[in-house]
């Protein structure tokens, strides 16, 4: 199985999963760039996966369905569905993509939006060597999504769930925000050597126009301050910036998210 990014809008990635015949897309904000790749590679679109209701993740669904009326759409149960025939998914559901021989587990990860879901495939799937995670706008490399609808507590809990996945899990986020996220992370945790090193390798990637994704859970645990806010030195830095003592994990996380919003 092949997984490739399709660039959309300014900095979105639509992920295309395919074998030599069939394709699945995740969060198609636009249809045209997908149609181009499908035509170039002679692929049949079988399934459309949606992580949350924002337009830059769903805007291409109707146009794709016009060309591919048999494609199945899967979307979060707790949000407006992007098409009338979409299958509504809840936490704990499994999704079997038979053409790709791939099974996803659905994880509800509210925070960015209230019904946001992520798709996780364990590596007991024959077609993948590493576990896969498609996490929409919940976890970014070096960062996390803005809290448009949910509370800091919800986002903190969602990120804790993702952090508990195996280190080898390949993380497919939907925006190229890595460089600015890491610059923020460095302001929070300037003593983090893994972060410093990663800033350099990401800069090289971007100079060459190469995506910085997928990341991995192991890497994110080392370089993403939003997964590190419980560490004493990170917490101290956030407290110093907030200018107030923060006791609960969620308070610390909320202050970190506010810091990033103003950065
Ligand atoms: Zn979004």
Describe the model:
Strand 2 and strand 3 form a beta hairpin. The chain is an alpha/beta fold and 263 residues long. The protein has one domain: Metallo-beta-lactamase, Chain A (4-Layer Sandwich). It is globular, with a radius of gyration of 18 Å. Strands 1-2-3-4-5-6 form a six-stranded mixed beta sheet, covered by helices on one side. It is built from nine helices and 14 strands. It is 35% helix and 23% strand. Bound molecules: zinc ion. Zinc ion binds next to loops. It comes from Oceanisphaera pacifica. It catalyses: an S-(2-hydroxyacyl)glutathione + H2O = a 2-hydroxy carboxylate + glutathione + H(+). Belongs to the metallo-beta-lactamase superfamily. Glyoxalase II family. It holds the Pfam family HAGH_C.
Q: Which helices and strands appear, and what pairs or packs with what?
A:
Elements: E1 2-8, E2 12-18, E3 22-26, H1 32-41, E4 44-49, H2 55-58, H3 61-67, E5 72-76, E6 87-89, E7 94-97, E8 102-108, E9 117-121, E10 132-134, E11 139-140, E12 143-144, H4 152-163, E13 170-172, H5 178-188, H6 193-207, E14 215-216, H7 217-223, H8 232-242, H9 249-262
Parallel strand pairs: 3-4, 4-5, 5-6, 10-13
Antiparallel strand pairs: 1-2, 2-3, 7-8, 8-9, 9-10, 11-12, 13-14
Bound molecules: zinc ion (ZN).
């Amino acid at each position: 199985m092949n997984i490739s990014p399709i660039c959309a809008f300014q900095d979105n990635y639509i992920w295309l999963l395919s074998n030599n015949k069939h394709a699945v897309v995740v969060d198609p904000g636009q249809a045209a760039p997908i149609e181009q790749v499908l035509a170039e590679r002679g692929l049949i679109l079988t399934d459309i996966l949606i992580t949350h209701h924002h337009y830059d993740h769903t805007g291409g669904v109707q146009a794709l369905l016009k060309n591919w009326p048999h494609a199945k759409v899967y979307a979060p149960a707790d949000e407006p569905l992007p098409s009338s025939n979409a299958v509504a998914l809840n936490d704990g559901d499994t999704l079997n993509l038979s053409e790709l021989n791939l099974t996803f587990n659905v994880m509800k990860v509210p925070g960015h939006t209230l019904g946001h879901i992520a798709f996780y495939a364990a590596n007991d799937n024959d077609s993948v060597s590493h576990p896969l995670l498609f996490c929409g706008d919940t976890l970014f490399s070096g960062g996390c999504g803005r809290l448009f609808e949910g509370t800091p507590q919800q986002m903190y809990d969602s990120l804790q769930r993702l952090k508990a996945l195996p280190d080898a899990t390949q993380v497919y986020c939907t925006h190229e925000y890595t460089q600015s996220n890491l610059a923020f992370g460095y302001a929070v945790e300037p003593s983090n050597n893994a972060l410093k090193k990663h800033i350099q390798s990401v800069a090289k990637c971007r100079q060459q126009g190469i995506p910085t994704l997928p990341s991995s859970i192991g890497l994110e645990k080392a370089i993403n301050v939003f997964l590190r806010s419980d560490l004493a030195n990170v917490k101290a830095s956030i407290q110093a910036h907030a200018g107030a003592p923060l006791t609960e994990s969620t308070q610390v996380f909320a202050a970190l998210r506010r810091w990033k919003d103003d950065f």
